[in-house]
Amino acid sequence: MTEEPLLVVDAANVVGSRPDGWWRDRAGATARLRDRLAPIRRHGLPGLVPPVEVVLVVEGAARRVEAAEEVRVVAAEGSGDDAIVGLVRAERAAGRTCVVVTADRALRDRVTALGAGVRGPRWLVAPPDRTAEG
Q1: Is the entire prediction scored with pTM above 0.85?
Q2: If residue 92 lies in a helix (H) or strand (E), which one and from where to where?
Q3: Given phi > 0 = left and psi -120 to 50 = alpha, else beta, which region is 129?
Q4: How far is CA 27 from CA 35, 43, 107, in A?
Q5: Terminal C-alpha separation, the chain
Q6: How far, in whole angstroms, is CA 23 from its chain's centroid?
């Protein structure tokens, strides 16, 4: 069993949760998200003690976004949701703690059925002392 928790981020859903013009440059917005996630590896988040493996699942126009040293990028061959579920299924079967960040209700239901925790996109930008789910 891997003790290091896994944080899986639904890139399309999280990027789309902020009306900051992401639709003009989906790949650029996803790369900025990847860069904002990097410190989580070392510093964790409420309920996730570091080190944390951070995985950003991308699809569509954002598929060309490359991994960074502290963030693994998984380019979904089809549906990003299916890629996330497959990743969680494999890791939970090994007994690993998994948390998925998404606001997609259908995806939330699918991964919680596998035993993963779920947090909303705002959780990623919450102040460090905030523990409520976003």
Answers
A1: yes
A2: helix 80-93
A3: alpha
A4: 12, 26, 22
A5: 29
A6: 19
DSSP one-letter string for 41-74: HHH-BTTBPSS-EEEEEE-GGGGGPPPBTTBEEE
CA 38 to chain centre: 11
Q: Tokens standing for 52?
A: 């944390």
Cβ atoms of 111 and 88 closer than 8 Å: yes
Q: Are 108 and 118 in contact (CB under 8 A)?
A: yes
pLDDT of 24: 85
Q: What does the pLDDT look like over 49-70, one tens digit per residue?
A: 999 999 999 999 899 999 999 9
**DSSP line for 17-40:** TS-SSGGG-HHHHHHHHHHHHTTH
Work out the number of other CB atoms within 10 angstroms of the CB of residue 133.
13
Token pair 């490359």: residue: 66
What number of residues does the chain have?
Answer: 134
Report the amino acid identity of residue 131: T
User: How is residue 126 annotated by DSSP?
Assistant: S
